[in-house]
Specification:
By secondary structure, this protein is of the alpha/beta class. The chain is built from 13 helices and 18 strands. The strands form 4 sheets. An 8-stranded mixed β-sheet has the order 3-6-2-1-9-11-12-10, sandwiched between helices. It is globular. The structure holds adenosine-5'-diphosphate, aspartic acid and magnesium ion.
Length: 404
């Protein structure tokens, strides 16, 4: 079998953990499997590199940021190879340049385009454990890029897809995917299985346990994922197309505090206005989520929407740049103290009343809803950031997710 095993930052945070991971990988190797290991940067080292950069220049270019951040993963793969060598097992570390992981040139949020198999296959054929840097890529001009925070999951899934691996295991610091972040909702329960679609919604809506693009890619290429703990042997959660259990109404609750709300007030009530506004943002790769448009009144309308907090400044600059030309609005209002709380579940499609249940839970806690957005399998509300934890717990309990 060819097995891809990905370990996150906490799983390789120190010497003891590095040896723990090395031993788990060696177990599979000694059982005769080909093993590819994908690693994140150790512990909080990516955050530390970011802090170091901001200390030198509060507004560094994204290219140089990516150049810097690739160091984190490079450190962990080299140390892992050394750990395996010391245990008498042949291993080699490779970075994105050596593997040739081609990505787009969107620094800090690049997309993987193609992975060359040759080098990896050669190393596997010579019976080595191959340890590859997560999170990083190389664009067509040989610049280093990164895939966005948490992107090592996507590297692992992409490798599993490209090399037709038999298994892709994502090892982390919790036992699997839970009905809510177990660190925020103590009653959260581990799920045995979850569908790609539900996992994609949860990941996109703030459940940081998997990078959303990794789920997107797993679904596209039919890579079955197992999310499990690097610290114990418990079974974990399987992410796949269909789940065998009776469909649950709601599978999980997610919260995203990396959210800010922008309202563009007094736009003209004419065709093409929404297109122009969102096209300006799209051209700069700014993702927009919950969108609300007011009804037109006196020839004008307002459009509110959310963006990630780290895109807020750029989004505002872009909109302001077009104030007197293509956008012609009156003013902008910003609220960066908001959070997005969502419930996700494939069972919602055929069940009325899910939204009402969620709103009741928030009402019971006297939490005001600022915006609402729904899809077939999710309901999202924008609320005050200070209410986020309370909202998560009350919504989670209202759907009795801890009791299933
Ligand atoms: P890694 O470094 O292994 O990639 P992450 O910090 O990226 O780990 O992801 C694991 C964390 O995701 C957990 O520690 C947990 O706090 C958080 N998390 C958020 N939502 C969920 C969820 N629904 N199920 C499990 N963990 C979750
Ligand atoms: N080291 C990167 C980060 O902290 C990528 C990852 O952990 O997946 O975001
Ligand atoms: Mg992660």
């Amino acid at each position: 079998m060819l097995i891809v095993k990905k370990f996150g930052g906490t799983s390789v945070a120190n010497k003891e953990r590095i040896f723990n991971v090395a031993n788990r990988c060696i177990e599979d190797y000694k059982n005769g499997h080909d093993v590819i290991v994908v690693l994140s940067a150790m512990g909080k080292s990516t955050d530390e590199l970011i802090a170091q950069a901001k200390d030198i220049n509060p507004n560094p270019s994204k290219r140089e940021m990516d150049m810097l951040l690739t160091i984190g993963e490079q450190t962990s793969v080299a140390l892992m190879a050394m750990a395996m060598e010391s245990l008498g097992v042949p291993a080699i570390s490779l970075n994105a340049f050596q593997v040739k992981m081609h990505t787009t040139s969107v620094y800090s949020n690049a997309r993987l385009l193609k992975i060359d198999e040759e080098r990896i296959r050669n190393e596997l054929d010579s019976k080595k454990i191959v340890i590859i840097t997560g999170f990083q890529g190389v664009d067509k001009l040989d610049n280093y890029t990164t895939l966005g925070r948490g992107g090592s999951d996507t590297t692992a899934v992409a490798l599993a897809a490209a090399l037709h691996a038999d298994m892709c295991e994502i090892f982390t610091d919790v036992d699997g995917v839970y009905t809510a972040d177990p660190r925020k909702v103590p009653t959260a329960k581990k799920l045995k299985e979850i569908t790609y679609d539900e996992m994609l919604e949860l990941a996109s809506l703030g459940a940081g346990v998997l990078h959303n693009r990794s789920v997107e890619m797993a679904k596209k290429y039919g890579v079955q994922l197992v999310v499990r703990s690097s610290l114990n042997r418990s079974e974990g959660t399987i992410v796949k197309e269909e789940v065998s259990m009776e469909r649950m109404l709601v599978s999980g609750v997610a919260c995203d505090k990396n959210t800010a709300r922008i309202a563009v007030i007094g736009l003209q009530d004419q065709p093409g206005v929404a297109f122009k506004l969102f096209n300006h943002l799209a051209k700069h790769n700014i993702n927009v989520d919950v969108i609300l448009q007011s009804i037109g009144r006196d020839g004008t309308k307002d459009i509110s929407f959310t963006v990630a907090k780290d895109s807020l400044q750029e989004a505002l600059e872009i909109i302001e740049r077009h104030k007197t030309t293509s956008l012609q609005y009156d003013k902008i209002d910003v609220d960066d103290k908001v959070a997005k709380v969502s419930v996700v579940g494939a069972g919602m499609i055929s069940n009325a009343g899910v939204a009402a249940t969620m709103f009741e839970a928030l009402y019971n806690e006297n939490i005001n809803i600022k915006m609402i957005c729904t899809s077939e399998i999710r309901i999202t509300v924008i609320i005050n950031e200070a209410d986020a934890e309370r909202a998560m717990v009350s919504v989670h309990d209202k759907f009795r997710l801890g009791e299933m």
